[in-house]
Amino acid sequence: MGLFKSLLIEMGRVWVDTLTDPAFLFIYLLLIGLVTSQYRRLQNLSEPLLLGRRNMFLGSALFSTVLGILGGLVGSLLLVVLGVDLAGIAVKELWIVAILLMLLKPRFLCFSYAAGAISLSHLVFGYPQVNVPQLIGLVAILHLVETMLIWANGAFQPYPVYVETEGQLRGGFNLQLLWPIPLISLVSVSMGDPAGGINMPSWWPILQNYAPAASDQNYALIPVLAMLGYGNIATTHTPGQAARRSAGQLLMFSLALLTLAILASHYSPFMFLAALFSPLGHELVIWMGMRSETQAPIYVPPEEGVMVLDVLPKSPAGRNGIKPRDIILSVNTQEVHNYHMLRNMLNRSKSALVLQLKREQELLTVPMAVIPNEDLGIIPVPEPGARGYLKLEEDNVITALIRWWQNRRTSRNLPPQA
Predict the structure, then answer these.
(1) Nearest Cα to 146, choosing from 254, 66, 285?
(2) For residue 216, how far is the Cα from the chain centroid?
(3) Domain coordinates of the chain in residue numbers?
(4) What are phi and psi of 412, to 5 degrees?
(5) Nearest CA among 241, 239, 232 for reference residue 155
(6) For 207-251, what is each residue's pLDDT tens digit?
């Protein structure tokens, strides 16, 4: 515990010094502004369903910023304990390749792909000069932090959407999250005996170099800003289930990648495996997420009544405990068959309503007081003819490879043409 206490104190000192730097604060505030604008864009996509509710994005941006600070603390400790040295990671090349890959396909703006490409280029062509285990270790730690953030933040205030997939219209939730991450990391600075500092234990660093490190190698702690993101569309699971599922899959990928990075730092044959697994393992995680959306959707019109996709905050429905996936069967004993009929009933109602709901297998009676013509505050699942939906298509290397293999097998089995 003494080591961690000393590291936290030293990190705190670095942050105090950093927070007095106007340039660093300016960049950090720019990242927070980018996060806020992204949440505003997501709200705009769902605006037709939100019925004029505004400024919901501000709460999402604030929550993500606070969690990003906590994630940065965890990530900083992991970076230092493993001994990730930014001096050997080719940070400039990493960003350049990431941006080029983003221009090819936006979802490739992820260090998993850029780090894999740079590592393979180094191993095959000798350029750029990079410490492959440390670069892959950095990517693994960032994804471990992302796992934690998805688990904590993945289902917070999701935005309802209508989605078309495989020719079927269904309801769902857009889980698009961004976190500005302030990190403290190591960088090797000089040789010699510094005054003060922290004496690290003999097992450190975990990510070893092949050449014996000089015993008097010195490192400095420097602040670094990063941005982590998560995207998913949940139509076959609730937002909470989808987030936990994604976090579990990403955790397995992160731990496997970190294990390969540590092995590669001790045994050079593992470097090729780590470099390949970085992009391909990430594609596998995306593919597993896409495959989950091929299951039966849960936000579709029921045989009777109107299913609730989402409930708007501070609305009569929200105040009276109506929840997503509740099915409204009747209003004031009159049966409801579609959302248009429900709206007409609400418009004709006076000051009191009695709703009969079906929640899973339970029938509930919910009395509520409303203002005449007041919106109930529910968003229904899409019914036939609904507009303003997203089109969901599979876009993944694993899917492309499976289709190529299936087409190849089919062509082999076709009889020869005369």
Answers:
(1) 254
(2) 40
(3) 2-190+201-292, 306-380
(4) -70, -30
(5) 239
(6) 876 544 445 567 788 888 888 888 888 999 999 999 999 999 999
